[in-house]
Amino acid sequence: MLGFSIMQLIERMPLSGYDLKKRFATSLVYGWYAHDSQIYPQLRQLEDHGYVESHLESSSAGPDRRVYALTEQGAAALRSWLQSPIDDTRQKSELMLRVWSSDLMPPETFLGLLADVTRQTQEHAARLTALHKQIRTRYGPPEVSWDPKHVGVLLCLEHDIQLAQAKLAWLARATEVVEMRVARASAEQGRQGNVAEPALDRDGREELWP
Amino acid sequence: MLGFSIMQLIERMPLSGYDLKKRFATSLVYGWYAHDSQIYPQLRQLEDHGYVESHLESSSAGPDRRVYALTEQGAAALRSWLQSPIDDTRQKSELMLRVWSSDLMPPETFLGLLADVTRQTQEHAARLTALHKQIRTRYGPPEVSWDPKHVGVLLCLEHDIQLAQAKLAWLARATEVVEMRVARASAEQGRQGNVAEPALDRDGREELWP
DNA sequence: TCCAACATGTAAACGGTTACATGATTAC
DNA sequence: GTAATCATGTAACCGTTTACATGTTGGA
């Protein structure tokens, strides 16, 4: 995956490991960042496969750079990957794991978690929105932008912004749910609990787990 | 991460590796599935750390099962993890990587990709919605459900459903954008292209990459 | 007798993170 | 001289995936 992420960048213009490192470090939208310790070995691996080729370049500022360019083989592999089927449903989310386990923590802790993620998401959405506005102002909306390259960038930004907004809506809803439960619990305090026995399956274990 | 995902399940009731395997295989919402080849070593690792303890159980049907239960240490580690700060902004998405690279494929291929993901997402959303309805009908809405365990499940389902819907809205928008571009391109066919030179930064490379 | 479900693993490869390590050039 | 930026790596570790491997019990 990282290999394609690199090849996709190199396809547009030859780049050195250092260039890639900078791209990955500053990219907001583009989730496919990588550490330098991963980039250089990956480049050599791609070269072993014949997907990229490199040559040394004397830089005006600093030491020599090894600059990588895509080969015909690499371009073919990239095209073939772009046309291969994709599975985009399974997403691991640490947040969902914690929400799933929310009954194992005190409500205040859960509310703190939700508030924390809300703040993060708001900041993230603000950055994405600013960037989207900037690029859109400069190159026009994706429908009419003269260079097809900006279409992907703008669409990625729109995707991430819309998903961030949906997440914020959910965070507000979840916060409300927990607050309502806390209010109900303190109202019922002292009264007899209305807790029923959970349903058991044939092995005597609770059934649930979808 | 997988360790907490397992401990979180075991906290509720002792489970064997096989039980966990089934849970992970059939879980829809819960992104933290794992292969059996990972589960058994992970369980032994958790036992080495003293987070779980196990004993053999003669099963009525089939061979002996090694059943794991959470220790006090494990419960403490789980609580501590649940209260630790979280970073929930970085998400790697293969779809976004392809969208970012959409200028490297023919528009028809891109439209095919979008259609494919749309179908997957619709099916996924339908399954989630059915499950949500079922659980909500049985145990009530999360605000009032008597057992706090269902709150997390229902909130996870609501999150995933809402995000799937946001994604579908974006997919429709992206499809529209690409179709408009295709229509414009064929309308402009034969005319002089209005392609300007891209902006160059000080190293002579194109600037863009947010 | 054979299949399905029960039950548990090993080995190799791949992917990603953290920490450590080195050295050149330019601007202050 | 010294800090920032340029430039490239190694080693150890942990997590994840894929393929392979083994054996039991109960029912058709």
Set down the secondary structure blueprint:
The structure is a homodimer of 210-residue chains.
Chain A: H1 2-10, E1 15-16, H2 17-26, H3 36-48, E2 52-57, E3 65-70, H4 72-82, H5 94-100, H6 107-139, H7 148-187
Antiparallel strand pairs in A: 1-3, 2-3
Helix pairs in contact in A: 2-3, 6-7
Chain B binds a DNA duplex (28 and 28 nucleotides) through helix 2 and helix 3.
What's the quick description here?
Two copies of one chain form a homodimer. Chain A has 210 residues and is mostly helical.
Description:
Two copies of one chain form a homodimer. By secondary structure, the first copy, chain A, is mostly helical. In chain A, about 60% of the residues lie in helices and about 5% in strands. In chain A, strand 2 and strand 3 (about 65-70) form a beta hairpin. In chain A, helix 2 (about 15-25) packs across helix 3. Chain A is elongated. Chain A starts with a helix and ends in a 23-residue tail after the last helix. Chains A and B meet through helix 1, helix 2, helix 4, helix 5 and helix 6 of A and helix 1, helix 4, helix 5, helix 6 and helix 7 of B. The structure holds a DNA duplex (28 and 28 nucleotides).
Q: In terms of quaternary structure, what is this?
A: homodimer
Task: Indicate the percent of residues in helices of chain A.
Answer: 55-70%
* Helix/strand class of chain A: mainly alpha
- How many whole angstroms does the radius of gyration of chain A measure? 25 Å
Total number of strands of chain A: 3
Give me the strand/helix succession of chain A. Answer: HEHHEEHHHH
Give the amount of beta strand of chain A, in percent.
Answer: 5-15%
Give the strand order, joined by hyphens, for the main sheet of chain A.
Answer: 1-3-2
Largest interface: A-B, 91 and 90 residues
The average pLDDT score of chain A comes to 87
Beginning-to-end CA distance, first to last residue of chain A: 30 Å
Largest β-sheet summary of chain A = 3 strands, antiparallel
Unreliable parts of chain A: 193-207
**Global outline of chain A:** elongated
Total count of helical runs of at least 4 residues of chain A: 7
